[in-house]
C-alpha cells in the first residue's frame, strides 16, 4: 500500500519547496512474540506470555537509558517512531538503545510502526509533530493489545501526564516509569531513575541553602548566546579544568586567540570539564596573571564560599608587600584574559566513577538516604544522589550519572547507575580508568567472532597463486619490537644490490584481507578506533586470534603483508618506490634490546646483524635529513613498569629508554607513512585519510618561552626548523637539562589529528612536528583503524580492489576521522591514568626520596618533574593552617618564588630534593604526595 507524505522545506538559497515522499505500508511486519498465532515467529524476542510487554515513549528512552540497560528490564517494544526521535535528539542514547536492540541476550524488539498499515498515523491539521508521535505510540500500543488478543499484558510506559490520560481514555493500559519499577519489587532499581527536576531539597542541614537564594547566575537563553557570539560579546570554547586545581579552568577561544582563565566555581557557573561554553570577559582590572594561579589543597572543598566567586584578593595580582606590590607585579607579568561562563552550548555529562562521601547510616536504615557522590577525578564537583542501598555502597566504587543542576543548588543532582567493585581493589580501579576514558573493553560479540577464519590458519595455495600477491618468502625479513610484543604488525628487510644501492622493505600485516567493509568485525573496529595499552594489559581493537596469530608477523611462519619497497642509494636517497600485497616469512622477531646488542657487538657478522647495521646507517642519514628540514625531536616522560606476571603488581618503575634500534624502526615507519600518503592522495584527492599536526600558536608557546628566558635561553619559535635548532643548542651543565626543555616543548604542541583530505586545503595538511607536507598512518593496522582505512585506499590506488562505497560519503568519512581522534586521545589518557594508578600501588609501601626539577611556578608552590620515575606533581610551600610558613612572592618574569624576607627562593628548572609517599587526605582518594625535604 502506498501513501504520499508531503511537507515544505527551505533550501539553502532561501526558497520554499514542497517535497512529496512515497511511503510504503505493509501488512507483513511481525510483532516479535513467539507465542503469536498470526505472525511469523522467526527472530521473535518475546518468549513468555507471562511477561509484561512494555511500549515506551521517547522521553522514557531519552531520560531512563541507565534503567533500560539493567537486565531487570526486558520485553520492550522499541517503536521506529521512537527510535527516529531519539536519534534526532541524542545520538549517544540512540547508540546505547541500538546496542540493546541488537544484543541477543536482551529482549528488545524494534517494531516498524511507521510502515505497518494498521499502525501508521497521518498528521492531523494543527497537530504538532510531538503530539502526532505521541498518538502514533498510543496507536501502536493499542494494536499490540488487540493483536496479541489478551495472550499477554501490554503496558505503555510514559511520564507525560497528558499522554497517559489519553491512553487510559482509549482503553490502553498505561503507567509511569516509577510506578512500573515499584511494581517489580526490586527497590534498588529505583536508584537508577532520573529524578524529575527539583530544587535543593536535601535533608542535610549544613548543605541546605535557602529555597529563594540563587547560588549561581542563570544561564543565558540560546538565542542570546548565539547573537552574543556573533557580535563578539561572548566567546565560545571547550572548558578544561586544571588537574591540580578544580576551582580553576581554561576556555580556549578562537575569537580572541588565547585561553580565557575561569577562576572559582561561581565563574564556572555549573559548567563541567569538557562542556562547550559561552564566556563573557571580566573587566580588565579583574584579569589574572600566572603568578596568581594556585595549586589547590586537598581539603579545599566546593562548599568553601571562597570558590563560588573569587574575592577581589583572589583576582588582584598577588604581592607580598601591599605597600610596594601590586603595580610592580602587574608591570613584570602581563595579566591574561579572565572571564565567567554565561551559558552552556553543549553538555559533556557522562557516567562518573567514584564513591559516596562517608556518612553515618540513617536511623533504622530504611527508606531513601540522601548522599553526596565524590568523583575519583577531582576536576568534577560532588553530585547529590538518593539511594535505597546506602549500606551496600559506602565501601564501593560506583557509577553515577548527572541529571540536572539548577542555579539554586550548590551541587548537581544525579542518580546511581551501577557498582563497579571494592574501593582500592586493582581490578576495580582499572575498570574505573576504562569507564572514565570511554574505552570499550567488553568481550567481542559472537557476530564479530563469526567473521574470523577458523584456527589454525595458514597461508593457502590460493594466496600464493593470487596474481595480486608477490611471493617474498625468499627475503631475509625480521621484526624489531618492544620486549614481549605479540601483536607484531611491521617487519623490515634490507638487501644489498649489485649496483651498490640497497633494496629496503617495510612489510605491514595485511589486516584488510580479514577485515572486510560492512561486516560486524569492521563496524566494531570502526567504533573502537584503536587498541589501548594499560600497564598490565592491552585492550584490543581486533579479536586476539587476529592480533596475536593470523595477522601477527611472527618469526618462522608465513604471513600475508602489504609491502612498501624502495631502492635507496647508500646516502638514503630514494631511486624508486613500489607497493605490493605479499607473502612473507620473518626469520627473526627481535626486541629493541636484542637488535641494539647485535649492532653493538663487533664480533657478530651474521646476515641479519649486517642488515640491521646497514638499515641503521640509512636511518641515521634519513633522520638527519628530516631534522635539517625542520623536524622537531620532542621528548615525553614515558614510564616503564616491571610487572609481576602472577599478581600483576608493579615490581619496579623507571623512565622508558629510547635506543638507536627504536629510532631506526621509527625512521622507516615514518618513511613508509609518507610514501603511502603521497600515493593515496595522488589517486584520491578528495577522500584520503591523512594526519596533520597544526603549528602551535604564539600563545601556546608562551609558557615555554617564559621558562627558557628565566634560565637564560633564547628560543626561536618562528618555524619548526628554528625551534628544532634552538632546542639542539639548549644544553646546560647537567645531562638532563636538554631532555627537560624538550618535554616542556612537547607540552606546548597541538594534538596531531586525522582528517579527510577533501575537508581542508593542501597547506593545512602540513605536519609541524615531522616537518612533512603530507603524512598518514599505514604501519599499524592491527592496533589502529586509521591504518585499515589507508590500506583500503592504497589497495584501490593500485587497482587491487574497488574503493568501498563509504569513500563517496564525505560527511561519514569526516565523522569517522572525528571518532578516531576521540578514541586515540582517550586511549592515551587511559594509558596515563593506568600509569598513575600503578604509581600509587608501587609507592604505597615504598615511601621514597628523589631529585626533582621545578617545571612550573605557582602562587603557593610549584609543579615538579621527577626524572627517575617520570612522575609529575605539585609541591606546596605553604599548607593552610601551617604556622610560621612565611609569605611567598612570585616573580613571574624570572620564574622564581621567594620568601618575602629574601632568605629562600626557588626557580624554574632548579633541582630540589623531595619526599614521595602515598597519602589519603580525602577518604577514598589516595594520591602521591610530594613534599620538599
TrEMBL record:
<keyword id="KW-0694">RNA-binding</keyword>
<dbReference type="InterPro" id="IPR050180">
    <property type="entry name" value="RNR_Ribonuclease"/>
</dbReference>
<dbReference type="Pfam" id="PF13638">
    <property type="entry name" value="PIN_4"/>
</dbReference>
<dbReference type="GO" id="GO:0003723">
    <property type="term" value="F:RNA binding"/>
</dbReference>
<feature type="region of interest" description="Disordered">
    <location>
        <begin position="297"/>
        <end position="339"/>
    </location>
</feature>
<dbReference type="InterPro" id="IPR012340">
    <property type="entry name" value="NA-bd_OB-fold"/>
</dbReference>
<dbReference type="InterPro" id="IPR022966">
    <property type="entry name" value="RNase_II/R_CS"/>
</dbReference>
<dbReference type="InterPro" id="IPR002716">
    <property type="entry name" value="PIN_dom"/>
</dbReference>
<dbReference type="InterPro" id="IPR001900">
    <property type="entry name" value="RNase_II/R"/>
</dbReference>
<dbReference type="GO" id="GO:0071031">
    <property type="term" value="P:nuclear mRNA surveillance of mRNA 3'-end processing"/>
</dbReference>
<dbReference type="InterPro" id="IPR029060">
    <property type="entry name" value="PIN-like_dom_sf"/>
</dbReference>
<keyword id="KW-0698">rRNA processing</keyword>
<dbReference type="InterPro" id="IPR033770">
    <property type="entry name" value="RRP44_S1"/>
</dbReference>
<dbReference type="Pfam" id="PF00773">
    <property type="entry name" value="RNB"/>
</dbReference>
<dbReference type="GO" id="GO:0006364">
    <property type="term" value="P:rRNA processing"/>
</dbReference>
<keyword id="KW-0378">Hydrolase</keyword>
<feature type="domain" description="PIN">
    <location>
        <begin position="52"/>
        <end position="165"/>
    </location>
</feature>
<keyword id="KW-0460">Magnesium</keyword>
<dbReference type="Pfam" id="PF17849">
    <property type="entry name" value="OB_Dis3"/>
</dbReference>
<dbReference type="Pfam" id="PF17215">
    <property type="entry name" value="Rrp44_S1"/>
</dbReference>
<dbReference type="GO" id="GO:0000176">
    <property type="term" value="C:nuclear exosome (RNase complex)"/>
</dbReference>
<keyword id="KW-0271">Exosome</keyword>
<keyword id="KW-0269">Exonuclease</keyword>
<dbReference type="GO" id="GO:0016075">
    <property type="term" value="P:rRNA catabolic process"/>
</dbReference>
<feature type="domain" description="RNB">
    <location>
        <begin position="469"/>
        <end position="800"/>
    </location>
</feature>
<feature type="compositionally biased region" description="Polar residues">
    <location>
        <begin position="321"/>
        <end position="336"/>
    </location>
</feature>
<keyword id="KW-0539">Nucleus</keyword>
<dbReference type="InterPro" id="IPR041505">
    <property type="entry name" value="Dis3_CSD2"/>
</dbReference>
<protein>
    <recommendedName>
        <fullName>Exosome complex exonuclease RRP44</fullName>
    </recommendedName>
</protein>
<comment type="similarity">
    <text>Belongs to the RNR ribonuclease family.</text>
</comment>
<dbReference type="GO" id="GO:0000175">
    <property type="term" value="F:3'-5'-RNA exonuclease activity"/>
</dbReference>
<dbReference type="InterPro" id="IPR033771">
    <property type="entry name" value="Rrp44_CSD1"/>
</dbReference>
<dbReference type="GO" id="GO:0000177">
    <property type="term" value="C:cytoplasmic exosome (RNase complex)"/>
</dbReference>
<dbReference type="Pfam" id="PF17216">
    <property type="entry name" value="Rrp44_CSD1"/>
</dbReference>
<keyword id="KW-0540">Nuclease</keyword>
<dbReference type="GO" id="GO:0004519">
    <property type="term" value="F:endonuclease activity"/>
</dbReference>
Amino acid at each position: 500500500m502506498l501513501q504520499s507524505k508531503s511537507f515544505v522545506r527551505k533550501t539553502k538559497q532561501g526558497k520554499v519547496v514542497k517535497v512529496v515522499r512515497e511511503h510504503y505500508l505493509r501488512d507483513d511486519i511481525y510483532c516479535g512474540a513467539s507465542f503469536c498465532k498470526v505472525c511469523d515467529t522467526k527472530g521473535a524476542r518475546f518468549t513468555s506470555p507471562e511477561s509484561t510487554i512494555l511500549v515506551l515513549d521517547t522521553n522514557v528512552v531519552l531520560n531512563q537509558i541507565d534503567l533500560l540497560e539493567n537486565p531487570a528490564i526486558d520485553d520492550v517494544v522499541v517503536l521506529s517512531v521512537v527510535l527516529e526521535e531519539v536519534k534526532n535528539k541524542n545520538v549517544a542514547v540512540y547508540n546505547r538503545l541500538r546496542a540493546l536492540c541488537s544484543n541477543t541476550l536482551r529482549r528488545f524488539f524494534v517494531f516498524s510502526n511507521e510502515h505497518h498499515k494498521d499502525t501508521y498515523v497521518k498528521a492531523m491539521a494543527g497537530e504538532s509533530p510531538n503530539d502526532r508521535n505521541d498518538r502514533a505510540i498510543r496507536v501502536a500500543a493499542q494494536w499490540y493489545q488487540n493483536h496479541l488478543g489478551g495472550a499477554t499484558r501490554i503496558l505503555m510506559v510514559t511520564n507525560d501526564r497528558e499522554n497517559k490520560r489519553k491512553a487510559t481514555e482509549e482503553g490502553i493500559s498505561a503507567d509511569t516509569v516509577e510506578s512500573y519499577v515499584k511494581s517489580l519489587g526490586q527497590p534498588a532499581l529505583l536508584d537508577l531513575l532520573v529524578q524529575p527536576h527539583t530544587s535543593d531539597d536535601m535533608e542535610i542541614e549544613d548543605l541546605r541553602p535557602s529555597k529563594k537564594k540563587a547560588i549561581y547566575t542563570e544561564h543565558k537563553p540560546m538565542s542570546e548566546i548565539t547573537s552574543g557570539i556573533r557580535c563578539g560579546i561572548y566567546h565560545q570554547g571547550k572548558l578544561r579544568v586544571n588537574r591540580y586545581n578544580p576551582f580553576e579552568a581554561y576556555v580556549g577561544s578562537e575569537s580572541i586567540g588565547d585561553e580565557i582563565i575561569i577562576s572559582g566555581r561561581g565563574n564556572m557557573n555549573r559548567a563541567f570539564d569538557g562542556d562547550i561554553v559561552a564566556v563573557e570577559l571580566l573587566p580588565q582590572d579583574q584579569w589574572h596573571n600566572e603568578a596568581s594561579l594556585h595549586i589547590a589543597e586537598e581539603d579545599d572543598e566546593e562548599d568553601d564560599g571562597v570558590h563560588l566567586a573569587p574575592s577581589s584578593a583572589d583576582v588582584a595580582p598577588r604581592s607580598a608587600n601591599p605597600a610596594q606590590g601590586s603595580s610592580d607585579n602587574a608591570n613584570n607579568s602581563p595579566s591574561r584574559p579572565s572571564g565567567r561562563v554565561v551559558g552552556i552550548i553543549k553538555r559533556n555529562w557522562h557516567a562518573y566513577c567514584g564513591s559516596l562521601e562517608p556518612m553515618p547510616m540513617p536511623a533504622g536504615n530504611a527508606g531513601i538516604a540522601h548522599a553526596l557522590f565524590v568523583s575519583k577525578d577531582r576536576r568534577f564537583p560532588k553530585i547529590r544522589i538518593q539511594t535505597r542501598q546506602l549500606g551496600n555502597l559506602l565501601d564501593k566504587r560506583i557509577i553515577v550519572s548527572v541529571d540536572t543542576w539548577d542555579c539554586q543548588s550548590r551541587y548537581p543532582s544525579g542518580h546511581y547507575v551501577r557498582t563497579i567493585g571494592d574501593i582500592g581493589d586493582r581490578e576495580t580501579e582499572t575498570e574505573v580508568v576504562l569507564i572514565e576514558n570511554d574505552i570499550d573493553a567488553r568481550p567481542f560479540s559472537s557476530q564479530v567472532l563469526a567473521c574470523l577464519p577458523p584456527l589454525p590458519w595458514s597461508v593457502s595455495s590460493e594466496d600464493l597463486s593470487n596474481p595480486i600477491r608477490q611471493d617474498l618468502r625468499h627475503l631475509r625479513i625480521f621484526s624489531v619490537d618492544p620486549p614481549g610484543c605479540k601483536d607484531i604488525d611491521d617487519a623490515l628487510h634490507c638487501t644489498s644490490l649489485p649496483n651498490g644501492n640497497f633494496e629496503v622493505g617495510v612489510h605491514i600485516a595485511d589486516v584488510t584481507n580479514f577485515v572486510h567493509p560492512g561486516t560486524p568485525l569492521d563496524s566494531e573496529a570502526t567504533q573502537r578506533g584503536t587498541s589501548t595499552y594499560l600497564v598490565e594489559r592491552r585492550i584490543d581493537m581486533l579479536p586476539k586470534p587476529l592480533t596475536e596469530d593470523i595477522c601477527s608477523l611472527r618469526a618462522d611462519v608465513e604471513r600475508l603483508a602489504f609491502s612498501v619497497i624502495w631502492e635507496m642509494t647508500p646516502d638514503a636517497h630514494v631511486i624508486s618506490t613500489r607497493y605490493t600485497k605479499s607473502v612473507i616469512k620473518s626469520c627473526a622477531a627481535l626486541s629493541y634490546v636484542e637488535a641494539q646488542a647485535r649492532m653493538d657487538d663487533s664480533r657478530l657478522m651474521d646476515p641479519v646483524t649486517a642488515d640491521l647495521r646497514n638499515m641503521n646507517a640509512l636511518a641515521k642519514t634519513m633522520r638527519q635529513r628530516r631534522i635539517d628540514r625542520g623536524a622537531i625531536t620532542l621528548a615525553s616522560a614515558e614510564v616503564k613498569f616491571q610487572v609481576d606476571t602472577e599478581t600483576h603488581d608493579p615490581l619496579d618503575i623507571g623512565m622508558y629508554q629510547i635506543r638507536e634500534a627504536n629510532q631506526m624502526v621509527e625512521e622507516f615507519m615514518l618513511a613508509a607513512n609518507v610514501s603511502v600518503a603521497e600515493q593515496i592522495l595522488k589517486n584520491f584527492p578528495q577522500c584520503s585519510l591523512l594526519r596533520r599536526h597544526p603549528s602551535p600558536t604564539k600563545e601556546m608557546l608562551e609558557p615555554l618561552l617564559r621558562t627558557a628566558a628565566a634560565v637564560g635561553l633564547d628560543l626561536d619559535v618562528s618555524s619548526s626548523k628554528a625551534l628544532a635548532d634552538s632546542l639542539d643548542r639548549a644544553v646546560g651543565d647537567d645531562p638532563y637539562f636538554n631532555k627537560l626543555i624538550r618535554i616542556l616543548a612537547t607540552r606546548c604542541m597541538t594534538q596531531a589529528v586525522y582528517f579527510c583530505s577533501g575537508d581542508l586545503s593542501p597547506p593545512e595538511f602540513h605536519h609541524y612536528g615531522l616537518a612533512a607536507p603530507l603524512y598518514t598512518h599505514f604501519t599499524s593496522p592491527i592496533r589502529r583503524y586509521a591504518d585499515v582505512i589507508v590500506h583500503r585506499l592504497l589497495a584501490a590506488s593500485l587497482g587491487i580492489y574497488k574503493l568501498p562505497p563509504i569513500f563517496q560519503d564525505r560527511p561519514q568519512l569526516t565523522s569517522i576521522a572525528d571518532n578516531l581522534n576521540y578514541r586515540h586521545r582517550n586511549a592515551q589518557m587511559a594509558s596515563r591514568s593506568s600509569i598513575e594508578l600503578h604509581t600509587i600501588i608501587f609507592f604505597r609501601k615504598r615511601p621514597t626520596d628523589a631529585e626533582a626539577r621545578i617545571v612550573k611556578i605557582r602562587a603557593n608552590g610549584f609543579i615538579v618533574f621527577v626524572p627517575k620515575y617520570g612522575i609529575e606533581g605539585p609541591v606546596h610551600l605553604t599548607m593552610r593552617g601551617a604556622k610560621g610558613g612565611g609569605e611567598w612572592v612570585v616573580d613571574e618574569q624570572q620564574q622564581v618564588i621567594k620568601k618575602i624576607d629574601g632568605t629562600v627562593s626557588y626557580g624554574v628548572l632548579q633541582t630540589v630534593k623531595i619526599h614521595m609517599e602515598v597519602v589519603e587526605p580525602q577518604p577514598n582518594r589516595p594520591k602521591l604526595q610530594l613534599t620538599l625535604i
